[in-house]
Amino acid sequence: MILAFSIVVILCSLILTGLVLLHKGRGGGLSDLFGGGVSSSLGGSSVAERNLDRITIGVGLIWFAAIVGLGLLYKLG
Fold this sequence. Notes:
The protein is mainly alpha-helical. 71% of the residues lie in helices and 0% in strands.
């Protein structure tokens, strides 16, 4: 069971890294340093961006639940 949770955590970590890198920079942070502030914002977010946000949050919740489950498994035995 610990192995299954560990695999889920590793996979979710890799997927989250990719999803976060796919997000558009909002400005005012490190994204400006690397040229992210050059692009103009058109006001609203597209459907693709909203779906990317939802997928990122979903994978993050799965990652968090797997971390908690892994911690409980280690604590209980």
